[in-house]
Amino acid sequence: MSDVTRTKHGRPVHHWRRDLVELAALFTAVAVADAVANMIGHGPEGPALLVISAVVLCATVGFHTWWARRHNHAPPTADDTGARPDTAGQRTGPPTAMERAGALATESSAGATTLWRMRTTVRDEPGSLAALCTALAHGKVDILSLQAHPLAEGTVDEFLLRAPADLPAAEITRGVAHAGGSGTWIERADAHDLVDAPTRILGLATRTALDAAELPLALRQLLGRCTIRSLPAKAQGTASGPRADKPADGAPVEGGLEGEGTVLRLHAPDGEVITVERPYLPFTPTEFARARALVELDTRLGPRIPRSQDVLTLAEGSSITVRRADTADVDAAKAMHERCSQRTLGMRYHGPVRDADRYLNHLLSPRFGRTLAVQTASGRIVGIGHLLWDGDETEIALLVEDDWQRRGIGSELLGRLVTLAVEAGCESVYAVTQASNTGMVAAMRGLGLPLDYQIEEGTLVITARLEATPVNSRLPYDQPQGRSEQR
To answer: Which InterPro entries did the record assign (predicted)?
Structure first.
C-alpha cells in the first residue's frame, strides 16, 4: 500500500483518495480470481486454468507494487500536499535568453558539458552574489568553485563553471550582465583547473623550490596566458650588489601593479626586475600577492638546478654525460666556443662570431630557460642545448663542437629539450638556423612531430607542434633504459 505523506502545519497529510483506489484494485483482483476458481475448478482442464489464474494474480500484484513505488518517489505537486509553491529565487515574467539557451542545450547535448573559467565584478552589497548564482542556475550552469577578491570598487568573483556543451559563452556572459556582473571575462578551462587553488599553488611552490628554471613556468601557470620578462640589475644601470631600494634583510621589495592593473612588476634583492604583462585581464591584489610569494621563495633559495645526470654510450663506443647546466658553466662554455669553427658559431648565433661569449650569461641563466650540457669523461663540455622562454613561445637552440658532430649528440639533446618543453606545457617549439644547416633540419625531422617551415633571406625557422611526446627522448634525470646508466 502506498502511503505518501507530507507535513502541513506540523501534521502529516494522508493521500486517502489514492489509497482507496489501490484497495479497490486489489479487492477486484481477488474477487475475479475467486470467481474464476469456482467456475472452472471442477472442469476437465481446471488445474491448468487455476495455474494460469495464479500467474495472472501474481502479475497484478507485481504491477500494483511497481505502481506504488513509482508514485512513492515522484515529487508531489503543490496540489497534492496543499503547500504553496516555493517562489524564492524565482523570477517572474518570460524566460531570459540564457534560460532558453540553457533549456535547449540540456535537451540537445544529452549530458555533454564544457568547463569554463569566468571572472566578473559585482557590487559589494548583500545579495549581489546570490543574484549571479541564480542567473547561472537558470542557464543550467553548475558552479564548481568560487574565489572572491574584494576591491575598493566591488568584488571580483572567479568561477569554475560546468555548462551544457551547446550553451554559448556569449549567453553565459549576457545572463551574468543581467544579474549585475560587469567586466566579465570567460575562457575555456580543462581538467587541470579542477584542482583547488591552495593545492595548485603548493605544487607550483614545490616545483620552484626544486629548480630555479621553474619560476617563469610557475608564474605562467598561476596567472594564465601572460608574457614574462626578466631584466637583470646591470641592464638597469645598477651595480651587481644589493640595490638601495631593498630592505636590509635581503627580502625583495613588493613591486607593484601598473598600466591599469595589466602589468605586474616584482623586484628581487639583486636588482633584477620581473615584469608580467596580461593585457586582456587586469591582475587582482590576490594574484599579485601569490606571484610575489613565489619570487620571494625563489630568491631566498638562491641558484639551484637538479644535479642528476645521464651517462650515455654513443654508437662508436665513446661515453658522454648529459646534465643540466647553469651560469656556473660559463667558463667551460667559453672554452668550447674557442674550439668551435667560425662556421659552427655562425650557424648557431646568426651574428658576429666575436660576440658569442657575451650571450652565455643570459643563455645559461635558469631565469630564461633550461640548458643541457654534454661533457666527456674528462669533464670537457662538447655540446650545449638551450630551451629558452621567449614570451609566449619557446625556442630551441643547439651547439655541438666540430670534432663531436655527426655522432648523434645533437639529436639526443634535441629530443630531451623537446621532452622538457612537453613537460612544461608548451604547445610548440621553434628553432632558428640557416637553410644550409642540414644537420639541424635532419634532427628536427627526426622528432616525428608536425613541422612548419619559414624561410626568409637564408634564415630558416622550423616550428614543431607538440601534439605528442616525441619518441627516443628522456629527461636527464629520468630513469634510464638500455644504453644509459644513472649517477
So the answer is: Acyl_CoA_acyltransferase, Bact_Acetyltransf, GNAT_dom
**Verdict on whether the full-model pTM lies above 0.85:** no
Tens-binned pLDDT, residue by residue, of the chain (487 aa): 434 444 444 444 455 677 777 777 777 877 776 776 676 666 666 667 667 777 777 887 777 777 666 654 444 444 443 444 444 444 445 555 555 555 544 444 457 889 998 989 888 888 888 999 999 998 889 998 888 888 877 888 889 899 998 888 889 989 999 988 988 988 888 777 778 788 888 888 888 888 888 888 888 888 888 888 877 665 544 333 334 344 444 444 467 888 778 898 888 766 778 888 888 888 888 888 888 888 888 888 887 887 777 888 887 778 889 999 988 899 999 999 999 998 888 888 876 667 777 778 888 888 788 899 999 988 899 999 999 987 678 899 999 999 999 888 999 999 999 998 888 878 889 999 888 888 888 889 888 888 999 987 778 899 998 875 544 444 444 433 333 433 3
Handedness of CA 103, 104, 109, 115 (dihedral sign): negative
Can you say whether residue 467 is alpha, beta or left, with left for phi > 0 and alpha for psi between -120 and 50 degrees? alpha
**Which cell numbers hold the place of 17?**
483518495
User: Do 447 and 454 contact (CB within 8 A), yes or no?
Assistant: no
